[in-house]
Amino acid sequence: MIGVRGNRILTYKGFSGYTCASSDQDNDGYSDEADCDDANPEIHPGAIEIPGNGIDENCDGFDLVVRTYELDNLKITLYPIPVSDLLFINMDIQTEVFIQLFDVTGKTILSQLNAEPIDVTGIPAGIYFLQIVSRSTNQNIIEKVMVSK
After folding, report:
1. What is the DSSP string of the chain?
2. How far is residue 10's CA from residue 22's CA, in Å, rounded to a whole number?
3. pLDDT digit string (tens) for 102-135?
4. Phi, psi (degrees; rounded to nearest 5) at 83
5. pLDDT of 19 strictly over 70
6. Separation between Cα atoms, residue 122 and residue 124, nearest integer Å
7. pLDDT-based confidence at 82, cuts 50/70/90?
8. Could you tell me what percent of the chain has a pLDDT over 70?
9. What are phi and psi of 63, to 5 degrees?
10. Residue 105 dihedral angles phi and psi, to the nearest 5°
C-alpha cells in the first residue's frame, strides 16, 4: 500500500522516506516515483498482473510468467515464475504426482505428494529446480524456478 500526505509519500511497500517530485500524471492514485508507467492508468503498483503479455502491470519488475507442460497425458501449469510467496501447480486431471524442489547443488529443499501450492516464503531468493514426477509412469518434468524477495 501507499500512504501520501500532500506531495510526500509517507510509506510505500513498507518503506518510508519517498518524496514526490511531481504529481500523479495518469490519475491512477500512484505518484510517478511509485508508478513504473505514469502515462498509463492501467499500470501501477496495485494493478492485477496479466500473465505472459510482456507487460509489468503491477510494477514489481516482472511480467507474470506461466509455464505449461504435458506429463503422462496430463496438462500441468506452473505460476507465477518468478515466485515470491506461493508457487501454484495446476493439473487438468487430478492424478498422483511427486514434487521436489532442489537448490543448484542438488540438495532437496522440499518434497511433497500431489500438486498443493508450494510456500517459498522461508526459502532464500535464488534459482531452484522443481521436479514433478508422475507416480503411475515415472515420467517427469524439471523446471527452473526463480525465487525473488
Report:
1. -EEEETTEEEEETTEE--B-SS--TT-SS--TTT-S-TT-TT-STTSPPPTTSS--TTSSS-PPEEEEEEETTEEEEEEEESBSSEEEEEESS---EEEEEEETTS-EEEEEES-PPEE-TTSPSEEEEEEEEETTT--EEEEEEEE--
2. 15
3. 999 999 999 999 888 999 999 999 999 999 998 8
4. -120, 145
5. no
6. 7
7. confident
8. 85
9. -85, 140
10. -90, -5
Q: Which long-range contacts (CB under 8 A, 24 or more apart) does 54-61 make?
A: 59/34, 59/35
* Overall average pLDDT of the 47-60 stretch: 84
Pairing of strands 86-91, 15-16: unpaired
Whole-angstrom distance, CA of residue 13 vs CA of residue 147: 19
The answer to whether 145 and 132 are in contact (CB under 8 A) is no
